[in-house]
Write a structure and sequence with these properties.
By secondary structure, the protein is an alpha/beta fold. It has nine helices and 14 strands. The strands form two sheets. Strands 3-2-1-4-5-7-6 form a seven-stranded parallel β-sheet. The chain has a seven-stranded mixed β-sheet with strand order 9-10-8-11-14-13-12.
Length: about 350
C-alpha cells in the first residue's frame, strides 16, 4: 500500500507526541522525520514511553531539504515558527499547523493578539482555518491547513449552527472554559511554578485571551450583526480535557427543544460530534482519549435562556485528532482513519 511520507516538527510536546500516537496507527501515513531542537538525537520514546514499541526515526534538526522527501508536514511549534517553515514549501507539500500561525485572516490581528509580525503574510490567503464538521469541503482547495485552538473547538462546534439559524442573541454570550494543564505545553510547570497545578483552579487571560480572536473571527462569518462574546479560560487540576459552559439568550419563539433539534440534525451524520439528551450533565472524563465533542443543552432558571455544555479532549479533538481529521478529508481517506 502506497503511503504518504510525513514530517512532524515539534514532535516532543504534548500535542506532538499525541499526534505520533495517532499516526503510527494510520494505514496511509509513514512517519519519515521527527524534528526538534533541544531533543536532537533522542528517540521519541524518551518523551512518550508508549511509543517505544514502534520503529520511529530519531529526532533531528529541521532543514528545508527534508521537505523534498515528504508529502505532509505537521507543525506543533511555538507561534511564528511555522510561518518561517512555510516559505520553503513546494507544490507537493501539505502543511497542517497545530499552532496559531495561520488561524487569523489578517496580519494586523496576528500582530495585535500574538505581539509579533506575521512573517508569511502572502500565504495567509492560501491557508484555511479548518473545522472539519463545518468546512471540510472547502479545505480540499488549500495546501496550508490551520487547526483551531482547543478552546475555540469546544465553543464553535455548538455555536456555529445556532449563529447560522439566528437562534440566539448575539450580544450577551458568556463562555466559561476549563482546561487540563497539558494545554499549556510541557513548560507549564515552569510557567506556573508558583501555583499548585494539581490542587488549584486558576483563571487566566481574563478579557484578553488570544483565542478570543479565533472565536470572534469565525462567528462573525455567520452573521452581519454585532456580536459580544465574553470568554474566560481556567487552568484546572487535571492533565487533559476541556469543559466549556456557554450561557446564551434565545431569540423569541426559540426554545431549548428547538436548539436541541437543530444541533442534533446538524450533526446527525457526524462521527465525532454527539448531541445528548436535554439537561445531560457531562464531564471531561466522558471524552478523554477520544476525538469526540459532547454537547448538552441545559435549561436555565431564567426564561429564554439556555446553558450549553461542551466537552472535548484538548490534545485530540482540540489538537492532534482534529488535525488528522483534516488530513483525512484533504486526501479523501475515511475520516476516522487512525483516530478510532
Amino acid at each position: 500500500m502506497l503511503k504518504l511520507n510525513a514530517l512532524i516538527a515539534g514532535s516532543t510536546g504534548y500535542i506532538g507526541t499525541q499526534l505520533i500516537k495517532i499516526l503510527v496507527k494510520h494505514k496511509y501515513i509513514n512517519i519519515k522525520y521527527l524534528c526538534g531542537n533541544s531533543s536532537i538525537g533522542k528517540t521519541i520514546s524518551y518523551y512518550e514511553k508508549s511509543l517505544s514499541k514502534y520503529k520511529l526515526p530519531k529526532i533531528k534538526k529541521f532543514n528545508k531539504n527534508l521537505l523534498n522527501d515528504v508529502d505532509i508536514i505537521f507543525t506543533a511549534l511555538p507561534n511564528g515558527d511555522a510561518q518561517d517553515l512555510s516559505k520553503h514549501l513546494s507544490d507537493k507539500n501539505i502543511l497542517i499547523d497545530l499552532a496559531a500561525d495561520f488561524r487569523l485572516e489578517k496580519a494586523s490581528q496576528y500582530q495585535k493578539w500574538y505581539k509579533q509580525s506575521h512573517r508569511a503574510v502572502k500565504l495567509i490567503k492560501k491557508s484555511i482555518y479548518s473545522l472539519p464538521e463545518i468546512n471540510r469541503k472547502e479545505l480540499k482547495k488549500y495546501n496550508i491547513i490551520s487547526s483551531p485552538g482547543c478552546y475555540p473547538t469546544s465553543i464553535l462546534l455548538p455555536l456555529i449552527p445556532l449563529f447560522k439559524k439566528n437562534f440566539i442573541n448575539f450580544k450577551n454570550i458568556i463562555i466559561d472554559s476549563k482546561s487540563g494543564y497539558s494545554g499549556a505545553g510541557r513548560g507549564v510547570h515552569n510557567k506556573y511554578k508558583n501555583k499548585n497545578l494539581y490542587e488549584s483552579l486558576s483563571a487566566y487571560g481574563v478579557g484578553n485571551h488570544r483565542h478570543n480572536s479565533e472565536i470572534d473571527q469565525m462567528l462573525k462569518k455567520f452573521t452581519k450583526k454585532k456580536i459580544e462574546v465574553s470568554f474566560t479560560p481556567h487552568l484546572s487540576p487535571m492533565f487533559r480535557g476541556i469543559l466549556s459552559t456557554i450561557y446564551l439568550d434565545l431569540q423569541k419563539n426559540v426554545s431549548q427543544a428547538k436548539v436541541i433539534k437543530l444541533l442534533s440534525n446538524y450533526y446527525k451524520k457526524e462521527k465525532f460530534v454527539k448531541v445528548l439528551k436535554s439537561n445531560t450533565l457531562i464531564s471531561t472524563n466522558d471524552v478523554i482519549n477520544t476525538n469526540n465533542c459532547l454537547i448538552s443543552v441545559c435549561k436555565s432558571k431564567f426564561k429564554n435562556k439556555i446553558i450549553i455544555l461542551s466537552a472535548i479532549d484538548n490534545l485530540i479533538k482540540g489538537g492532534a485528532g482534529q488535525a488528522v481529521q483534516s488530513l483525512n478529508n484533504k486526501f479523501n481517506f475515511p475520516e476516522t482513519t487512525g483516530i478510532i
